[in-house]
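Write out C-alpha coordinates for AGRG4 protein.
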Amino acid sequence: MLNMLFLTNSWLSSFNQPSLCIAAAVLLHYFLLAAFTWMCLESVHFYFALVKVFNVYVPKYILKCCIAGWGIPAIVISIVLIINKDFYGNGSHSERNPFSNFCWIQENVVFYISVVAYIFLIFSMNTAMFITVLLQINSIKSRTQKRSRIWKR
Protein backbone atom coordinates (compact mmCIF):
# COMPACT_ATOMS: atom_id res chain seq x y z
CA MET A 1 0.00 0.00 0.00
CA LEU A 2 2.90 2.34 0.69
CA ASN A 3 4.25 1.89 -2.83
CA MET A 4 0.80 2.18 -4.39
CA LEU A 5 0.05 5.42 -2.54
CA PHE A 6 3.48 6.83 -3.30
CA LEU A 7 3.07 6.15 -7.01
CA THR A 8 -0.45 7.59 -7.21
CA ASN A 9 0.11 10.51 -4.84
CA SER A 10 1.01 13.11 -7.46
CA TRP A 11 -1.98 12.07 -9.57
CA LEU A 12 -4.29 12.34 -6.54
CA SER A 13 -2.97 15.81 -5.73
CA SER A 14 -3.78 16.99 -9.26
CA PHE A 15 -7.53 16.82 -8.48
CA ASN A 16 -7.17 19.84 -6.15
CA GLN A 17 -9.47 18.27 -3.56
CA PRO A 18 -8.16 19.10 -0.08
CA SER A 19 -9.95 16.19 1.61
CA LEU A 20 -8.62 13.72 -0.97
CA CYS A 21 -5.11 15.07 -0.54
CA ILE A 22 -5.35 14.90 3.27
CA ALA A 23 -6.58 11.29 3.06
CA ALA A 24 -3.75 10.36 0.69
CA ALA A 25 -1.15 12.07 2.91
CA VAL A 26 -2.51 10.41 6.06
CA LEU A 27 -2.51 6.97 4.45
CA LEU A 28 0.97 7.48 3.00
CA HIS A 29 2.26 8.56 6.41
CA TYR A 30 0.51 5.63 8.14
CA PHE A 31 1.84 2.97 5.78
CA LEU A 32 5.36 4.44 5.93
CA LEU A 33 5.36 4.24 9.72
CA ALA A 34 3.78 0.77 9.61
CA ALA A 35 6.52 -0.50 7.29
CA PHE A 36 9.22 0.68 9.68
CA THR A 37 7.33 -0.64 12.71
CA TRP A 38 7.13 -4.08 11.11
CA MET A 39 10.85 -3.88 10.38
CA CYS A 40 11.44 -3.25 14.10
CA LEU A 41 9.20 -6.17 15.03
CA GLU A 42 11.22 -8.37 12.71
CA SER A 43 14.39 -7.43 14.60
CA VAL A 44 12.67 -8.33 17.88
CA HIS A 45 11.67 -11.66 16.36
CA PHE A 46 15.27 -12.13 15.17
CA TYR A 47 16.43 -11.49 18.75
CA PHE A 48 13.98 -14.06 20.15
CA ALA A 49 15.02 -16.64 17.57
CA LEU A 50 18.79 -16.30 17.98
CA VAL A 51 19.39 -15.04 21.51
CA LYS A 52 16.46 -16.20 23.59
CA VAL A 53 16.22 -19.57 21.89
CA PHE A 54 14.88 -21.64 24.77
CA ASN A 55 11.98 -20.96 27.12
CA VAL A 56 10.56 -18.15 25.04
CA TYR A 57 6.84 -18.43 24.90
CA VAL A 58 4.84 -15.29 24.39
CA PRO A 59 1.11 -15.94 24.59
CA LYS A 60 -0.71 -14.72 21.47
CA TYR A 61 2.57 -13.58 19.95
CA ILE A 62 1.22 -12.94 16.44
CA LEU A 63 -1.76 -11.00 17.80
CA LYS A 64 0.56 -8.82 19.88
CA CYS A 65 2.82 -8.25 16.88
CA CYS A 66 -0.16 -7.25 14.75
CA ILE A 67 -1.47 -4.87 17.39
CA ALA A 68 1.98 -3.26 17.68
CA GLY A 69 2.68 -3.28 13.93
CA TRP A 70 -0.59 -1.65 12.96
CA GLY A 71 -1.47 0.12 16.21
CA ILE A 72 1.63 2.16 17.02
CA PRO A 73 1.58 3.98 13.65
CA ALA A 74 -2.16 4.55 14.08
CA ILE A 75 -1.51 6.21 17.44
CA VAL A 76 1.10 8.54 15.91
CA ILE A 77 -1.22 9.46 13.03
CA SER A 78 -4.14 9.99 15.43
CA ILE A 79 -2.08 12.36 17.55
CA VAL A 80 -1.08 14.39 14.50
CA LEU A 81 -4.70 14.50 13.28
CA ILE A 82 -6.00 15.48 16.72
CA ILE A 83 -3.53 18.35 16.96
CA ASN A 84 -4.37 19.70 13.50
CA LYS A 85 -5.55 17.89 10.39
CA ASP A 86 -4.20 20.75 8.28
CA PHE A 87 -0.67 19.50 8.90
CA TYR A 88 -1.40 17.27 5.92
CA GLY A 89 -2.03 18.74 2.51
CA ASN A 90 -0.90 19.48 -0.99
CA GLY A 91 2.52 21.04 -1.21
CA SER A 92 4.24 22.21 -4.34
CA HIS A 93 8.00 22.00 -4.34
CA SER A 94 8.32 24.17 -7.41
CA GLU A 95 5.99 26.87 -8.67
CA ARG A 96 7.27 26.50 -12.24
CA ASN A 97 6.52 22.77 -12.37
CA PRO A 98 2.83 22.03 -11.70
CA PHE A 99 3.53 18.29 -11.71
CA SER A 100 5.64 18.49 -8.57
CA ASN A 101 2.60 18.62 -6.26
CA PHE A 102 2.56 15.93 -3.62
CA CYS A 103 0.18 15.21 -0.75
CA TRP A 104 2.27 14.99 2.38
CA ILE A 105 3.03 16.65 5.73
CA GLN A 106 3.22 20.42 5.31
CA GLU A 107 4.74 21.36 8.66
CA ASN A 108 8.49 20.72 9.04
CA VAL A 109 8.34 20.25 12.82
CA VAL A 110 5.62 17.63 12.49
CA PHE A 111 7.61 15.88 9.78
CA TYR A 112 10.78 15.77 11.88
CA ILE A 113 8.97 14.51 14.98
CA SER A 114 6.53 12.04 13.43
CA VAL A 115 8.72 10.66 10.64
CA VAL A 116 12.42 11.37 11.16
CA ALA A 117 12.46 10.82 14.93
CA TYR A 118 10.27 7.72 14.59
CA ILE A 119 12.53 6.19 11.94
CA PHE A 120 15.62 7.12 13.98
CA LEU A 121 14.11 5.33 16.98
CA ILE A 122 13.41 2.24 14.85
CA PHE A 123 16.95 2.21 13.42
CA SER A 124 18.44 2.63 16.90
CA MET A 125 16.46 -0.33 18.18
CA ASN A 126 17.37 -2.42 15.14
CA THR A 127 21.04 -1.57 15.60
CA ALA A 128 20.88 -2.56 19.27
CA MET A 129 19.19 -5.86 18.40
CA PHE A 130 21.72 -6.52 15.65
CA ILE A 131 24.69 -5.90 17.94
CA THR A 132 23.14 -8.12 20.63
CA VAL A 133 22.61 -10.93 18.14
CA LEU A 134 26.16 -10.59 16.79
CA LEU A 135 27.63 -10.72 20.29
CA GLN A 136 25.54 -13.79 21.08
CA ILE A 137 26.63 -15.56 17.90
CA ASN A 138 30.26 -14.66 18.60
CA SER A 139 30.06 -16.03 22.15
CA ILE A 140 28.45 -19.26 20.92
CA LYS A 141 31.21 -19.60 18.33
CA SER A 142 33.98 -19.08 20.88
CA ARG A 143 32.41 -21.59 23.30
CA THR A 144 32.13 -24.15 20.51
CA GLN A 145 35.78 -23.64 19.53
CA LYS A 146 36.90 -24.08 23.16
CA ARG A 147 34.90 -27.32 23.45
CA SER A 148 36.34 -28.66 20.23
CA ARG A 149 39.91 -27.95 21.44
CA ILE A 150 39.19 -29.74 24.73
CA TRP A 151 37.78 -32.76 22.88
CA LYS A 152 40.79 -32.86 20.57
CA ARG A 153 43.17 -32.98 23.54
